[in-house]
Design brief:
Alpha-Beta Plaits, alpha+beta, 26% strand, 20% helix, single chain, eight-stranded mixed sheet, 266 residues, 3 domains, four-stranded antiparallel sheet
Length: 266
């Protein structure tokens, strides 16, 4: 039996348009084509919804419609810890974004690492972004000591033996060589503690500087160190799309109540 449609609420196409899915006309066409579901049921034109409570999907991908959920992209500077608070009184990433509503970092970058970090109070998205099953790519620009040989780069690509087991295949390429050091680009989809640093050390090239330049579909070369901005609706949707191809075994729901995960791949 179909769930009765609420007599009040907003028109579905208006909610979708506000969430950045497209113009109202484009959203009406999506609804007419049967590509929109509300509460697991295919929606019809004229459907009214509660944007704060109804689960709305387009092509199987969740649409962020709740007004209490926020998504920030931060360019983390060095010497800032990736936690909401620190008992030692060190600067934290939470102190670089608005205090309300309270948000938490998704995954971690170690204290000396820099670069892009998502902070949100969307617990389900945070869970999926850090769940190993989804394998969200993370790209790093790494300055290392020495100049990696083809063999060293091949080792990074094929997997490196670490004390907690071999790493999965990664992407690695030499960006620039300059005297006694070089810059390489590394892309991984795992999230072990200090993984990129340990991988580079394992092939004989300790890290001088590490900057995360991309998280899945998210990149922003204009964001200055220490600066943050809200994610656009299309960026939130792109993140959902990136982690919705498979379902996590134990999905979380509701606002985040703590750090997204103990992931620390920087």
């Amino acid at each position: 039996m179909s769930t009765p449609e609420p007599p009040t609420g907003e028109r579905l196409q208006k909610v979708l348009a506000r969430a950045g899915i497209g113009s109202r006309r484009a959203c009406e066409e999506l609804i007419a084509a049967g590509r929109v579901t509300v509460g697991g049921e295919v929606a019809r034109l004229g459907r009214r919804v509660d944007a704060e409570a109804d689960a709305i999907h387009v092509d199987g991908i969740p649409v962020a419609t709740r007004s209490d959920l926020v998504y920030y992209l931060l360019n983390k500077p060095p010497r800032v810890v990736t936690t909401a608070s620190d008992p030692q009184g060190r600067p934290t990433v939470a102190g670089l974004v608005p205090a309300e509503p309270r948000v938490f970092p998704v995954g971690r970058l170690d204290r000396d690492s820099e670069g892009l970090l998502v902070l949100t109070n969307d617990g389900e998205l945070a869970h999926r972004m850090t769940h190993p099953r989804h394998g969200l790519d993370k790209e790093y620009l790494v300055e290392v000591e020495g100049v990696p040989t083809r063999a060293a780069l091949r080792a990074l690509r094929e997997g490196v033996e670490l004390d907690d087991g071999p790493t999965a295949p990664a992407a690695a390429r030499l960006v620039q060589a300059r005297g006694d050091h070089a810059a390489i680009e590394v892309v991984i989809h795992e999230g072990r503690n200090r993984q990129v640093r340990r991988m580079c050390e394992a092939v004989g090239h300790p890290v001088r500087r590490l900057v995360r330049t991309r998280i899945g579909p998210l990149a922003d070369r204009t964001l200055e160190p220490g600066a943050w901005r809200r994610l656009r609706p299309d960026e939130v949707r792109a993140l959902w799309a990136a982690v919705s191809e498979t379902q996590a075994t134990e999905p979380a729901s509701g606002p985040a109540t703590g750090p997204g995960a103990a992931e620390g791949s920087g």
